[in-house]
Predict the structure.
Amino acid sequence: IGCFQLGSSNIRKFCRQLGLENFDHLVAATALYRPGPLGAGFADSFIKRKNGEEPITYIHPVVEEVTKNTYGVIVYQEQVMSILHLLSGMDWATVDKIRKLMAKSKGRDSLKKYEEDFVEGCKEKRTLNEEQAFMLFEELMNFGLYGFNKCLTGDTILYKSSANRISGNEITIKQLFDSWNSKTSVGPKVS
């Protein structure tokens, strides 16, 4: 493939099980193929849902909107932030603080206050009842054990050539992926 995250035989096997159909699936695979999501069953759930072997359920239409591209599985930190903001009305600075605390093992203790704010915000906005809000917040905190941001986009440059060594400009992740899928070459030719 040409990307070190996808070089092992195990991740290639995982990608085959996933049945990569587009670039978003490739990005999700890099986020899901980590000890946390593998151990918690999130990666298996993603594959089963994508392949129609497990029903996709959503606690609220907002969660559906945020996670529909990942089959109802929370895969990225940005999804957690959007869910917190949209369901409870928390401001973006607060949800970013929560994102940072979730990633720290000691941060989970300091999240109790934010859990209460989330539940109260959901009740005020009438998006979730108290039980649903507590349950969703716990699911979001479990995500924090393995959270990964969606930092790779199709236009991320993998290679930029120096003019005197290689002719051509650059290769993006999307070009490499499309090339790999179509079995044609992409990017500059080495002279």
The CA atoms of residues 49 and 96 lie 29 Å apart. The first strand starts at residue 157 and ends at 160. The mean pLDDT is 80. The longest helix spans residues 112-125.
